[in-house]
Amino acid sequence: xxxxxxxxxxxxxLIEMVSSYCNRFYADKPELAARRIEAIGYQVGHQLSERYxxxxxxxxxxxxxxxxxxxxxxxxxxxxxxxxxxxxxRGTFVLQDNRFRWLSRMSxxxxxxxxxxxxxxxxxxxxxxxxxxxxxxxxxxxxxxNLGIPCAVSADISHLPACSFVIRIKA
Length: 171
Hints:
By secondary structure, this protein is of the alpha+beta class. The chain has one domain: Muramoyl-pentapeptide Carboxypeptidase, domain 2, CATH 3.30.1380. It is built from 6 helices and 4 strands. The protein has helices at 7-25, 30-52, 62-78, 112-115, 118-131, 134-146, and strands spanning 84-87, 92-97, 151-156, 163-169. The protein has a 4-stranded antiparallel β-sheet, with helices on one face. Strand 3 (151-156) and strand 4 form a beta hairpin. Helix 1 runs antiparallel to helix 2 (30-52) and helix 2 crosses helix 6 (134-146). The N and C termini lie far apart (39 Å). Pfam families: TRAPP. Belongs to the TRAPP small subunits family. BET3 subfamily. InterPro entries: NO_sig/Golgi_transp_ligand-bd (IPR024096), TRAPP_component (IPR007194), TRAPPC6/Trs33 (IPR037992).
């Protein structure tokens, strides 16, 4: 039987990690905080990919590896497959999760009294939420790197709790 970690523990760890890097370690350097959080995700994704592909033959092409990420890898981490996969057949893939678990309990609503204008509060809350996406982007990039696919990964949260991960494979 494989080792498992409580989902609530992982979510709490992610929240605390983002809070620590953004508010304590690099409070005045959000770009550096984002890079550090993504680097931790990269290491986690690299190791998880190693664990989940131990018994598998090497993937033949990029599409096969991306399908592995969408089905098997995502199922291991989030207990469901990616809802939609799109590609332009030129090295760009979009993975759509209609209810991304790590964002499903978060809210970007903020009170105007504590943040100034309502729009400023929503912008700050959305920016804080986007910091939580560097970790899963790093996980995806680390997993694909371990599979021999160098790439860049970004996320879009324009329709919460849905989240899109854009993978651009480097030539």
